[in-house]
Amino acid sequence: MELPLKTIGWIRADFKQKFGTPRQGSLAKNSRASVELSPEWRGRGILSGLEDFSHVWLITHLHLSISKRNRGKVHPPRLQGKKIGVMASRSPHRPNNIGLTLARILSCEGDELRLAEVDLVEGTPILDIKPYLAQADRPEDFKGGWTDKIAIAPRVCEFSEQALHNMDELTKAKVIEDPARLRALVHEMLALDPRPPAYLARSDARFAIWVSGLNVVFRFHDEKFTVIAVEQQNK
C-alpha cells in the first residue's frame, strides 16, 4: 500500500555529511539549524503558535541512508561491535528511514523557525513538526534499556596552534561569524568519537568533518583528538 507522505520543508544545518553529525541533538548544544518550508506551505501560518513552545519533534526522512539491505540487527557505536535489534536502536538504517529529532526552538516568526540541538544534515526532508509537551512526552518512570549499562567517557579534544590561527584568519575574513560557538560545536562532535569502527584501532589516522561550510581536519593520537586545520570549504 502506498502511503501519501508530503515533504513540508527541509533542514538547513551545520552538517553536510553523515560522518561527524551528532547521534542525538541534545549532545550538541551548539548545533544550529533552520527550517525552510516548501513553497506550497509558505505564507499560510503553518508555524503559528510554535513561538510559545521550548522544543519541537521533527519527523524526517533520512535521505542519506540508502542501504538496500533489510537489517534485523545493527551495531550501535556505543556497543563496540555487539548487535541489537534495529527497533531497539536509533540507527538511521531502518525499514522506512524515518527519523525523530527533539530540537530546541531559538525563535519562530512567520515562516522562519530557528533551532538548536539538531542532529540532522543539510537538506534533510521534513515530514512533520509537532510541539513537545512535557505532560504527555515525558513519562514519570522509564528505563533506558541497554543504554543504561553503557558508560563511555567523552574524548578529549584540543585545537592546535595552526587550527586556532586558521580560525582567527577566517573570523577576520568574516567566514566564521561566531568562533566560540564553532569551537564548542567541534568539541561536542569529536567528544562523541565519530570514527568508523574499522578505524578505531588506528592510532594516528587523519579525518575531516564538514561544519558550517568549513573543512575541519583532525587526528586521533595518544587517546585524544587534535584539530590540526580549519579550512574554508571549496565550492
Description:
The strands form three sheets. This protein has a six-stranded antiparallel barrel. 22% of the residues are buried. The chain has three helices and twelve strands, in the order E-E-E-E-E-E-E-E-H-E-H-H-E-E-E. The protein starts with 8 loop residues before the first strand and ends with a strand. The model has no long low-confidence stretch (mean pLDDT 87). With 235 residues, it is mostly beta strands. The protein is globular and about 50 Å long.
Average pLDDT works out at: 87
Query: Could you tell me the number of beta strands?
Result: 12
Number of helices: 3
Low-confidence stretches: none
Terminal CA distance reads 42 Å
For the CA atoms, what is the radius of gyration?
19 Å
What kind of sheet is the major sheet?
6 strands, antiparallel, barrel
Question: Brief description of this entry?
Answer:
The protein is mainly β and 235 residues long. It has two domains: 9-137, Elongation Factor Tu (Ef-tu), domain 3 (Beta Barrel); 156-232, YaeB-like fold.
Label this structure with key terms.
six-stranded antiparallel barrel; single chain; 2 domains; four-stranded mixed β-sheet; YaeB-like fold; mainly beta; Elongation Factor Tu (Ef-tu), domain 3; 12 strands
